[in-house]
Design a protein that fits this description.
This protein is α+β, with helices and mostly antiparallel strands. The chain is built from 3 helices and 5 strands. Helix 1 crosses helix 2.
């Protein structure tokens, strides 16, 4: 299976072909959507996209880790992490594609 990464430019091109906006309008739309998602997550909101999944922020407390080479205890500072949970619809589509079944 060849690995390919979808980029903002790829999303912009897909919007350009599917929606029919100009390339610059497509780029603005993609940036606007990604910006709204980012701002919502920064504000601590959960972002749910129907039939795709949900993005949320989880706060992780400070904890003690270990330096594997020296065994020395090292504090791991508190941080926020991004969590994505795929919807069952997306999981089914991915698995149907993998097994060659038709999702219809």
């Amino acid at each position: 299976m060849a690995e390919k990464t979808m980029t903002r430019a790829d999303l912009t091109e897909a919007v350009y072909h599917e929606v029919g906006l100009s390339r610059s309008e497509s780029a603005e739309l993609v940036e606007s959507v990604l910006g709204e998602i980012s701002e919502s997550l920064i504000d601590g909101e959960t972002v749910k996209i129907s039939s795709f999944g949900s993005f949320s922020i989880r706060d992780k407390a400070q904890r003690v880790g270990r330096n594997l080479k020296t065994g020395e205890a090292v504090p791991i500072l508190p941080r926020r992490v991004l969590v994505f949970r795929a919807s069952h619809v997306l999981k089914d589509r991915i698995n149907d594609e993998l097994t060659g079944r038709d999702g219809a």
